[in-house]
């Protein structure tokens, strides 16, 4: 499966769908995505092939970690993310995949910051804040 930025310069390839999809309602994800929540599917770093030039933005997390966003320097799209909480995993926003897929969030985090009108009906795990394990 291939995901790419708006201009196509930065792309990632992954072996196929994953069930590790998270919807995050924290304010930082709202700012990153420009929507009421951010979402990403996660794979081990070794399963993600990155092609193109990326710029990195690191931000502190509310739990004292670091969350890194990698974006296209030409169009600004965040194409992948990595965090100190799960240091072996790479996240890719599911809206960036070129072809239709069935991936959907199984986990919803930081729901204490969720917009009242947003529901994630596919999530089987719900957390008021971050998942701690």
What's the gist of this structure?
With 133 residues, this protein is mostly beta strands. It contains one helix and eleven strands; from the N terminus they run βββαββββββββ.
Helix percent reads under 10%
Q: What's the total number of strands?
A: 11
Kindly estimate the percentage of residues that lie in beta strands according to DSSP.
Answer: 35-45%
Structural class: mainly beta
Largest sheet: 5 strands, mixed
In one word, what is the shape? globular
Q: What is the mean pLDDT?
A: 94
- Element pattern in H and E: EEEHEEEEEEEE
Adjacency order of strands in the biggest sheet: 9-4-3-10-11
Count of helices?
1
Contiguous runs where pLDDT drops below 50 for at least 5 residues: none
Terminal CA distance reads: 29 Å
The radius of gyration is: 14 Å
Name the features.
single chain, about 130 residues, mainly beta, 5-stranded mixed sheet, 1 helix, globular
Detailed description of the structure:
5% of the residues lie in helices and 35% in strands. It has 1 helix and 11 strands. The chain has one helix at 27-33; strands at residues 2-4, 11-13, 21-24, 38-44, 49-51, 55-60, 66-71, 78-83, 89-92, 107-109, 125-126. β1 (2-4) and β2 (11-13) form a beta hairpin. The longest helix is centred in the N-terminal third of the chain and has 7 residues, at 27-33. The protein is globular and about 35 Å long. The model has no long low-confidence stretch (mean pLDDT 94).
